[in-house]
Amino acid sequence: MSVRILFLGPLRDLAGQDDMLVEGTLDWDRLLQTVSPQVAAQLREERVNIACEGRVLADKTALMAEDGDEVALLPPVSGG
């Protein structure tokens, strides 16, 4: 089993892929080490959110994804 990371919007462009699989559990520090430095820099921004299993995390640094979970990296939403 593994954790699936989904890159959405501009984060997909930075990552150069739609998603990636990582083995085992995934916490905040491991997420930052796993993605590219450009994506990690964006994740550190307050405007970028993370959802785990469909729930947006109030504190993204508390991420703890288990085998089989899906983690979505959510870029800022623009509106007009």
Automatic annotation (TrEMBL):
Which species does this protein come from? Qipengyuania nanhaisediminis
Pfam families from the xrefs? Answer: ThiS
Lineage, uppermost ranks: Bacteria, Pseudomonadati, Pseudomonadota, Alphaproteobacteria, Sphingomonadales
Name of this chain's protein: Molybdopterin synthase sulfur carrier subunit
Cross-referenced InterPro entries, in alphabetical order? Beta-grasp_dom_sf, Mopterin_synth/thiamin_S_b, ThiS/MoaD-like
